[in-house]
User: Fold this.
Amino acid sequence: MGEKVVAGQFDLSDRQRYRDKLHRCLTGLERLLAEKRFDRPKNLMGLEIELNLAGADGMPRMLNAQVLERIASRDFQTELAMFNLEVNIAPHRLGGRVFDRLDEELRTSLGYADRKAGEVDAGIVMIGILPTLGRDDLVSSNLSDVDRYTLLNDQIVAARGEDFKLDIDGVERLSCTSKSIAPEAACTSVQLHLQVTPDRFADVWNAAQAVAAAQIAVGANSPFLFGRELWRESRPPLFQQSTDTRPPELQAQGVRPRTWFGERWVTSAFDLFEENLRYFPALLPICDDEDPLEVLDRGGIPTLAELVLHNGTIYRWNRPVYGIADGVPHLRVENRVLPAGPTVTDVVANAAFYYGMVRALAEDSRPVWSRLPFEAAAANFDAACKDGIDARLTWPRRGRYGGTAEVDAVTLVRDELLPLAEAGLDAWGIEPADRDLYLGVIEERCRRRVNGATWQAATFHRALDRGLGREAALAATTRRYRELTEQGDPVHTWPVGLPEPVPTA
Assistant:
């Protein structure tokens, strides 16, 4: 979830000093861009997955410190709550058999972590929102014992000045309050990184924004929270509401939330970093000793520590990232759209679909963002979160007449986006057999209208029909989900329902 932060208190001078430093960092970034100091094209991608810990009964286990101690690998890190972990996969060059290698690495890493979790009677569950989470699980006392999380919670709570209101109206309605940001921890996602040159950044970011709804439509995997069936992908509204520093009055004034889709297509990475400073006050005003402009004057590369920290407290679904590797600065687009799971094959298929689409769309001579209003892309995102694979999305019409039309998500994916993804993967130099394997998973989800969310909902209702109460049905669904995840076949092949005999209610 970001850099290490030491807990402390802030006064008025800290915030003013931090704001001044942020502007010096922004000027430093502008100079780096103007002086063309960034890394050459490397076609590098990276992957992070947030995970849940649950027991054999399907209920959450607050044991991440004990599990991480046993895993003893820097590839695994703590996350916001005690039932969360994160696994980081080292960067790979896009090309050849990269997706097959990712599949193997993930299976090895997750299998090892699951065995270690088993030593404390827990297991790894790769899912968007663990269905068995209750309100008593998502409280501040269950946040991980890490200074950054404590401080971030304190600052967001102080900025809001009142309880957080959670109100999600889906298949059922959830309306409740929280005294902390702990409900955010329910949202476990996949983050897909793509290193890009400054000249390509805007095209890649715009492409990623345009296809975010399609990613959600085929990849939704978070239909439940606190025992209620909500949106097919409930993470985005939950994340926004559980980190919302705006009381109702500021929301009514149109103040932007810290978790947002955005409001425009961009022309450079600078646009996004500049928006961060213009719209969002600092939550963690911690200043580094480095003066970025002095470093640049000496011919060095500044860390832009304040800019990086501030960027990490603004939760865009496609986030700009500034980093340094081997003394050379680079830019990345961090795609934060997808939920975790259901299986390794599904995760890799989602990644292949994304990287193929953005490559093809970013190189299109007539970019989709020149034909699709940004407001339509944002509305598409909400529609996909609500309705998942059954969503209807707005997309530019083919042919000379132009304009946009509303189309079923599965039709859009099968007829337009999968061919684009295929062409994009070819441009990356992906092995054709791997291309066909993983894009075939996406195609089959569309053909069967199945993803993780539809399977969870259908299995839950089958359990209710067999006489289980709601809590027992959610627990049984979670246990069955974990069993099928461990078997490894992609979710579109999973049988709906629970195995015999009927579990105890």
